[in-house]
Specification:
This protein is mainly alpha-helical and about 55 residues long. It has one domain (about 1-55). It contains 2 helices and no strands. Helix 1 packs antiparallel against helix 2. The relative contact order is 0.12.
């Protein structure tokens, strides 16, 4: 269920950011997709770190 929720949020964010970055920078490179993927990886890393108690002091 959480994977589905993450996929929906990621798809909407990717679409909105892609539209905005195409207007700002053109369509030569998918900056919106890059930004959403980097932020998604950061969020997954933070949530994963919170789930591992032996890593916290």
């Amino acid at each position: 269920m959480l994977v589905s929720l993450g996929a929906v949020v990621g798809a909407v964010a990717r679409y909105l950011l892609s539209e905005a970055t195409v207007r700002m920078f053109g369509d030569g490179f998918p900056y919106g997709t890059l930004l959403v993927n980097v932020v998604g990886c950061l969020v997954i890393g933070i949530l994963g770190g919170w789930g591992i108690p032996e890593l916290s002091d």
